[in-house]
Amino acid sequence: MNQSLLVRPARAGVGVVLLAIAVLIASSRPAEAAYAQIEGSGSTWSQVIVNQWITDVSANGIKVTYTGRGSSAGRKAFAAGTTDFGITEVPYQGSGAQGGDDPPPKNRPFSYVPIVAGGTAFTYQVRVGGKMVRNLRLSGDTIAKIFTNKITNWNDPAIAKDNNGTKLPSLKIRPVVRSDGSGTTAQFTAWLDSQHASDWRPFFGRAGLTSYFPRKGNATGANGSDQVMNTIADAAGNGTIGYVEYSYPVNKNFPVVKVLNQSGYYVEPTQYNVAVALTKARIRKDLTQDLLGVYTAQDKRAYPLSSYSYLLLPTGAKDQRMTTSKRQSLADFMFYSLCEGQTKAGKYGYSPLPLNLVQAGFTELSKLKRADPKVNLNDRSVTKCNNPTFVPGNLSANKLAQIAPMPASCDQQGQGPCTTRTGTAPTSVEQVTKASGAGGGSGGSGGASGGDGSAGGASDAPGAGAAIDPETGLPVGSASSGGGAATVAVQTELTAGRAGDDAIFGTLAAVELLAIILAPGVVAVALRRRTRSTTGARS
Amino acid sequence: MRWRKVLATVAVAAVGTGLLTSAGVQAQGDDVGAFRQTKTVERTFTENGDEVRVDRRDVTVQVDHTRNLRGRERVHVTWDGARPSGGRSTSPFGENGMDQEYPVVVLQCRGRDDASLPAAQRVRPETCWTSTVQQRSQLQVPDAAAIWRSDRYADDTARSALSGVRTLPASCGGAAAGTSTHVTPFVSAKGQTFASCSSDTLPPEAAVDASFPPAEQAAFTTVDGKGDIQFEVRSSIENESLGCNDTTACSIVVIPVMGLSCLQSDSRQLNAACRKQGRFEPGSSNFDGQGVDESVSPRYWWTASNWRNRISVPITFGPAPNVCSVLDDRPPVGFYGSELMSQATVQWAPAYCLRKDRFRFQHNVLPDLASFQLMQQDEIPGAFVSSLKTVDGETPTAYAPTAVTGFAISYVIDEPKNAGERGTLNLNARLLAKLLTQSYPGSSLGRQHPGLETNPGSLNADPEFQALNPGLSTGEQEAAAVLVSLSESSDVIKAISTYIDDDPEAHAFIEGQPDPWGMRINPAYQRIQLPVDEWPLLDTFTPAVQQECLKQNNDTPYLTRLAAPVTSFVKIADALLDAWPYSQTKCSGLGTDQFPYVLGRADRQGVGARFLVGVTTLGDAERYGLHTAALQTSAVSPRAPFTTRGRQFVAPSDATLAKAISTARPTGRTQPFALEDGAVRQANGYPGTLVVYTAAKTSGLDRSTARTVASFIRTATTEGQRRGSGNGFLPDGYLPITRTGTTAALFASAQQAAQDVEAQTGTTPGGPGGAGGGGSTDPAAGAPGTDGVPSDAAAAAEDPAAAGGAKQPVDAELKSLGSTQGVHSALGAWFLPALILLLLGCAIAGPVIRLRAAGREDS
């Protein structure tokens, strides 16, 4: 009774206020173009971040559905006119492509719009004494020979050489390749064809890239990036190595190979190293990428297998699937993705697009308006972009590339290897800015967050994560080989001396066991005493 | 300011006492517009000038709600009295449903069935949506098979050789002698006519095999004349051409297909074709897509004979919610973390951006621990997590309870004999353990696995499952051998594995004790240490195979391919919606260089034979209308003879989530609550209940970030907890956190956390993280995939006393001990030694000290 008496006026009041707010909001609502749902399919390489963007723009009323079926399927569906957009890592391959012809759409004018950059990473499971190696480094040559079945055992001298003499035990290598039509495969084989033709072409039987990896010998096929990760991470996965976008191992906390670049450094596909490498990408007129300069980038930080993926944008005025509302959805989804959406790329294991590509993307978007003058593109421009790679006023500069930390000296050929873990949460722009100091250049002792050492390194190996100064590459504190080896999980040396370890660790284990057994009891007794004294005091 | 505050308080109080305010809460009580109508439908033939009735039925159609709908909302359509269907196809959607007999066609159409309306606003076949040409057009059909021309209710124009359009578009082929063509054009909301007789004359939203699946169905009626479906409505946002919204009226049109009513035609062939009455038995299936008797197929829903039998259900759409502007130049504030929050945060986001005095809120989905680390590194302001996290060098952190929700074991399972979907399912921890440990062999391939030879092939073949869920098909099914689950780390996986670990029967099974029917755990998982944050794939067995395609793709362990976990919960919800397992068991290709043999995703399951079970979030389960299993709460001794009696099963609901939360114990100021599995089960709470916290630093944040986080916590725990489907409201699948009632302690803790985050004066007085958990573990030890996930964090969350040196949790426990002496002290004192006992297998030392301690207490 009382309650309803109280509540009724309150409800009325609330109603009035809410109504007032509603009116306020309604009247202040900007005159937005209506959106209609758009649908697309394609790449799993890009899917992790595309899915997040789709969530983000739903707050703007833009509904997007996307299914990751692989780039080849995405191109096919777009060409057949069953989707509004596609996402792919490589352009249409034309006739005679492996896995069937891949012709561009006949009656559907379209553009390639770059959407996100990233590194094709090599993730692996190699165990030494039951423990996972997390700091493996490989040269491009070794990778090419592994995937063309020329190097078939992890104890191969070439792998030991890449790791500065640290030899892995005898363990059969099992390459894991995509079984479906994949842009990731296309990116990888494009690099193989360009840089390691003598290994690749005899293996493939012809020149060029392919979306369908020719699985042979000991290799395993897996469908989609998710299943590549499962195949590598499962208990039978010891000895496997596969290729996926960097976000997959990062999200699964799995290691990735540091790949040797032209300057003799082994680097991980962090957002920085990808950004640095992509400054060397040549963009063709249709915005497709010529990555030769990326593969051979001279910068110490450059990750050679960096690339970006495209959205297939329908630009025709008579496109059968397009309406004004759908074009507006595409335009604003892309406006968000190209600008603000790029700010989270690093956290998801991607790399933001550089300004020149974003600008080129906007040029393509303007074709939507040309196709349909009712599309509103006002105020949607590069100048409105909050993109971390931009340097205001300098189109060609890339801020990420400018502030990217130099690799540690232990990552250099003939040095190290570094003991820090790979495939951990990447660092952000702010962090590096902080680390490299306001002075913006040399030294800086705030090396704790440099490179990849910050997250995982800190959590598994106290002290080790803070060990490397990103600028000088010098270990802060002790020598890298000594202290690091004892505390870090990534032991790769297989020398004897394990007996001594056993004694030490055996004793330690015994003491710990004893402590675990005794401590709770002791604590319990102590607690009980306190309980009694507390309750005693209270009563 | 003050006024608003008072009002907010009142509003929250009103919600808390169960009285809902009018605004924002849509369609309460009678408002939902439940629909019911009965109509007599019939099929008649003309015989020698007389009308002969072939069949006549009274069909009653009901729809559970029809008002204020949102795009993609599902309404429940049921019917009774319809002619039983035959030849069920594997999918009722779009063109896939065409090869069936006597189905009930359900379409969404623009307009209303109201004679008083002008013609343009009335519903007609031309305003009804279908996705493909096959559903609308019959092109160049030999005259003798053009049964629509024999329709006794059709008018003369509809009986001519070309009907529906005056001239046929070029892409639809020309007229050929001796053939007939009918086209049912689609007229869009803007008045544009699409001939719909070829792929390039379809409206923009239509396509065969589109990413966005069709909504229209040719649904199946059981042998007793009943049927029911979830029908997804589309607003003008999803389907602009159809154009249904708050200003354009629409209907759901239900057509019980009775078969064409036929004239007596001169052509004997045509007469026979039109009068066919079906070749499939009622209740039968047509999995391989054989041809059906056209006259009783859904392909001719547009004929006058079928159309006149329709029942039209008027529906209304709510106004489209206000949305954020893409031109908003405030930088977004990105919180990261648990996917459990997704459905809530999608609704919350506009409530932030639409207010000038707020900020632009975003939720980025990432694994819990990774988000926590980003938060600790000052990369992000706050992380959504569901349990205590520890990282080295941790800054003091407050955990603000932000949502009460959890995981669901969702499923899609068909009753045998096409009798519809199973609506309730009982699962216990041992069944989940059997699924997750890959102990069902799945097929003859898996049965080669040493140790699995005599195990039941899949969940539905397991006598234990059959005892708890009688009446389902018991034939071994590959996809029924696994629980579709997550491949990455998550607090959800930890919660499921805790539920398994704490259950006596499941625990004994994991330890190697067979179930009462002799089923044993897959040896690869025997004695797996639970709980885990990430479920490892431990099996290594590859079977001997005969097929060349399989031979070439036999490296990955069979059971791993079967399990095929994925990277997000929403992908699992998708798989359940489509009944499309991720199992990588389908071999295809030609064995040539160009088309090599490859292994890929298994086929979609056919409607009528679906059986798929997966882990989803409660939010997704509600949003997509998935069925969710009830989980057993009673603890049964593994040594007792098996009986179903006395086993309690609890399904997720507001009430059962509340019961679970009523057992939550505080573990310290602004620290995560202890939600112990044992206590939840004892209270008959839903075992999948989880609290999602906003974790943020209480020291070291800059002032504006601190304020933003505090304001988010306050908004989220007040106006964000009002139930509803509008901007800023809390969707189904979440239990509102309120100032009073069961969740009051969570509410208070959240406000405290907001205050501490805002103040930024946090210290670590022996709090968690500081020296907690006995230092960090070696992440590389243990099962694959679990590396780097500090399992001691898990232990600390389950048992606050185990976090070494954690003074506050201990104090909290002592206080509750004072009030509920006997029970609590026994549990608390027994639990820790028992846990250690299990983990280390040290049988003697623990109890001795325990007993001594107890002895002293007694004295």
What's the short version?
Chain A has 539 residues and is of the alpha/beta class. Chain A has helices at residues 2-28, 47-58, 71-79, 140-147, 157-162, 183-195, 197-204, 224-233, 247-252, 271-278, 292-295, 324-338, 355-371, 399-403, 429-436, 455-460, 482-487, 498-538; strands at residues 38-42, 64-68, 85-88, 110-125, 127-128, 131-132, 137-138, 174-178, 220-222, 240-245, 258-260, 266-267, 282-283, 289-290, 306-314.
Record keyword descriptors for this entry.
heterodimer, A: 539 residues, alpha/beta, eight-stranded mixed beta sheet, three-stranded mixed beta sheet, 13% strand, disordered N terminus, disordered C terminus, B: 859 residues, alpha+beta, D-Maltodextrin-Binding Protein, domain 2, 3 domains, four-stranded antiparallel beta sheet, 26 strands, globular
Q: What is the mean pLDDT of chain B?
A: 85
Largest interface: A-B, 133 and 133 residues
Radius of gyration of chain A from the CA trace?
Answer: 27 Å
Estimate the global geometry of chain B from the Cα principal axes.
Answer: globular
Class by SSE composition of chain B: alpha+beta
Helix content of chain B: 10-25%
Overall number of strands of chain A: 15
Mean pLDDT of chain A: 77
Largest sheet of chain B: 8 strands, mixed
Domain count of chain B, please report it: 3
Category by helix and strand content of chain A: alpha/beta
Q: What low-confidence regions of chain B span 5 or more consecutive residues with pLDDT below 50?
A: 1-29, 765-829
Q: How does the major sheet of chain A shape up?
A: 8 strands, mixed
